[in-house]
Amino acid sequence: MSRTQLLRGFRNTPRRTVLISGAGVAGPALAFWLNHHGFAVTVVEKAGALRGGGYPVDVRGTAVEVVRRMGILPRLREAHIDLRRLTFLDGDGGEVASVDPHTLTGGVAGQDLEVRRGDLTAALHTAVRDDVEFLFDDCIDSLDQSGHGVDVTFRGGGRRTFDMVVGADGLHSRTRELLFGPEARFHRYLGYCFAGFTLRNTFGLFRETVLWNTPGRAAALYAVGDDDDVHALLNFARPHPPFDAFRNPAAQRDLVATAFADAGWQVPGLLAAMRDADDLFFDGVSQIRMPRWSSGRVALVGDAAYAPSFLTGQGSSLALVGAYMLAGSLAGRDHAAGFAAYERDTRGFVTANQEQVGEGDAALFPTTARALEQRNDMLRNLSAMPSGEGRPAHSALTLPEFTRMT
Predict the structure, then answer these.
(1) Pairwise CA distance, residues 174 & 323, whole Å
(2) What is the C-alpha separation between 398 and 239, in angstroms, rounded?
(3) Over 80: is that where the pLDDT of 88 sits?
(4) Mean pLDDT on 277-296
(5) CB count in 10 Å sphere of residue 139
(6) Neighbours of 181 (CB within 10 A)
(7) Contact by Cβ (8 Å): 383, 375
(8) Rounded to an integer, what distance in angstroms lies between the CA atom of residue 304 and that of residue 345?
């Protein structure tokens, strides 16, 4: 059968149905592009509503072209944070260096974006909410591929059948666990844990980050604009992941407090604020590395398949690019051929960005006194340098122009 006959056959058949698990970044982006290519899409999200607020995220390189093609680039430009200064402090709170953030992150001033995560997810949701079905306050309970599609049982008790299912449900993906087994098989722990939360901006900070370091520990305050709040991050080295704390908020607070018990600067106040924070997020710094991203009619996208860790700053960008590539790869192909093309054409880009761990912003958390002093010497030299032209990995993939299937 020729490609023309194949495309004609797809156009004359009912719209193929796809269930996406997760309404963060990858899920709505994938929903947009699948709808663009003629699929009937449902997105299920365990939260009761779209999550607002959140820490700032970056959209860089190839991902900027994705949001431009989606038509949401102007909205994201308006939401751009424009962080202007990154100041490093020593253990006593004295200034080590103050640098242009782009010199460390590899971002390109005037091109790449930094926005609140909630602003990005809201823009993605608005772009697609009238064209796809969203199911909030529910999630996938089981998957069965023994028939001609994927039989899905939802936690809320519903049952439906879809032609394909995609897990866009993050680092601790339930879909991945159902499909491939325990997370430990694919989890690459990078030797750190972190706690993030918000508190009142009583520090006089504006569009800047202040980062305090001692060997193996870092405390950061991140002021994104005119808000009354700042984002706080407490990061500390730990040789093994504290599995017993991941599902126990009280244990998380105790673990962080112990790690920073003798810290100076503003850290005692941050620990007190953490105790009262209602938005505490705690996790290990890690990546997801998988030999394949699909099985049968079920695939993974974004952090569920290839989380790069926040040390790279590329999680949202990989999610956006991966969503574009997965949807386009499925256009005019069956699931097996589409999933194979998605992985073939996207894996190199993913690998290049995951390997950015250890570059620039990933070197912010030295674990020894010698490494910290070397880092500080590097920062003092950087402080006089202009911002860079971006890292090659961020733009290592040129987006193809996929044929639109309608």
Answers:
(1) 18
(2) 38
(3) yes
(4) 95
(5) 17
(6) 10
(7) no
(8) 18
Q: How confident is the model at residue 381 (pLDDT cuts 50, 70, 90)?
A: confident
Which tokens sit at 222? 């991140």
37 pLDDT exceeds 90? yes
What tokens appear for 382 in the block? 């950087």
Pairing mode, if any, of strands 85-89 and 208-214? parallel
Other Cβ atoms within 10 Å of 308 Cβ, number: 26
CB 127 within 8 A of CB 57: no
Place of tokens 């950061």: 220
Q: What is the pLDDT of residue 190?
A: 92
- C-alpha span between 262 and 260 (Å, rounded): 6
Amino acid at 97: A
In contact, 193 and 234? CB cutoff 8 Å: no
CB 320 within 8 A of CB 59: yes
Give the Cα separation of 45 and 139 in Å (integer). Answer: 6
Q: Residue 400 — pLDDT band, cuts 50, 70, 90?
A: confident
Distance, CA of 133 to chain centre: 23
Strands 281-288 vs 187-200: parallel, antiparallel or unpaired: antiparallel
CB atoms within 10 A of CB 80: 15
DSSP secondary structure code for residue 48 in this structure: S
CB-CB contact of 15 with 162 (8 Å): no
Flag whether pLDDT at 327 surpasses 70. yes
